[in-house]
Design goal:
The protein is an alpha/beta fold. The chain has a single domain, classed as Rossmann fold, CATH 3.40.50.300. It contains 9 helices and 10 strands. It has helices at residues 42-50, 72-77, 95-103, 109-122, 138-151, 168-183, 195-201, 219-222, 226-231; strands at residues 4-13, 16-26, 31-35, 57-62, 65-66, 80-82, 156-160, 187-191, 204-209, 212-217. A hairpin with a 2-residue loop joins strand 1 and strand 2 (16-26). It is globular. Bound molecules: adenosine-5'-diphosphate and magnesium ion. Magnesium ion binds next to helix 1.
């Protein structure tokens, strides 16, 4: 199973530092939260971890191996999968086919079909498996993205605001799913604005503000952290 370590990552857009010497670790069997106000740098950090963006300084290690210079597909082969904050589904394909496209990257097609059926069940998507992705409300579309990420059987899963648009019951089921993925040994990193979900499922929370990590700790400590309250939670 893949642990993630981000060391001293810096990303600059023009003159603006989106990330400034960011450190983050995430371990197998745990859900690691990454929170912070809009523009804090959360999605940019995911881009760096997946290889979509090269940092100007710092390293990304998967299972202790430096992958900073590897492209996204090489990293995906190490078991890394992510969802995007903006939906990136194949709109004209059915829900099932969106997952099959990812699952069939593996060698065994029949196994892929079984795995997809299983994931659809786990995410409660079986009833809408034949609907086209672009017919779905956003909250369900995000679940389909999670399903597609799961279809590659990731050992490291990065989720960028997966619960946005979900109602209370959907979020509760989603929390249970995240815990079961971690219990199966996956490393899960969760970017999410729903504080109840973050506090409920995360073992450790990292807080980013203006590209810097301002706090790391268990959720109950983060809730009380003065710098976090000032930067972020104060207005929640
Ligand atoms: P978050 O996901 O925490 O809301 P982002 O990672 O999207 O934050 O953005 C962090 C900062 O980097 C913001 O100031 C944003 O405007 C800037 N930024 C993100 N992507 C780009 C880009 N492609 N070009 C220029 N600036 C960007
Ligand atoms: Mg973002």
């Amino acid at each position: 199973m893949a642990s993630l370590e981000v060391r001293g990552v810096t990303v600059t857009f023009g003159g603006h530092q989106a990330l400034a010497r960011v450190d983050l670790t995430a371990d197998p069997g745990q859900v690691t939260g990454l929170i912070g106000p809009n523009g804090a740098g959360k999605s940019t950090l995911f881009d760096v971890v997946t290889g979509l963006r090269r940092p100007s300084a710092g390293q990304v290690l998967l299972d202790g191996r430096d992958v900073t210079r590897l492209g996204p597909s090489r990293r995906a082969r190490h078991g890394l999968a992510r969802t995007f904050q903006r939906l990136e589904l194949f709109g004209r394909l059915s829900v099932r086919d969106n997952l099959l496209v990812a699952a069939e990257l593996g060698p065994d097609r029949r196994r892929a079909a079984r795995a997809v059926t299983d994931i659809l069940g786990r995410l409660d998507l079986t009833a809408i498996a034949d609907q086209s992705a672009d017919s779905l409300p956003t909250g369900i579309g995000r679940l389909v993205e999670v399903g597609r990420a799961l279809a590659v059987r990731p050992t490291l899963l990065l989720l960028d605001e997966p619960a946005a648009g979900q109602d209370h019951d959907e979020t509760a089921r989603f929390a249970a799913l995240l815990r079961s993925l971690a219990a199966d040994g996956a490393t899960v990193v969760l970017v999410e604005h729903d504080m109840d979900l973050v506090m409920d499922v995360c073992d450790t929370v990292h807080v980013l503000d203006l590209g810097r990590v301002i706090a790391v700790g268990p959720p109950q400590e983060i809730r009380r952290d003065g710098a976090v309250l000032a930067a972020y939670l104060g207005d929640v």
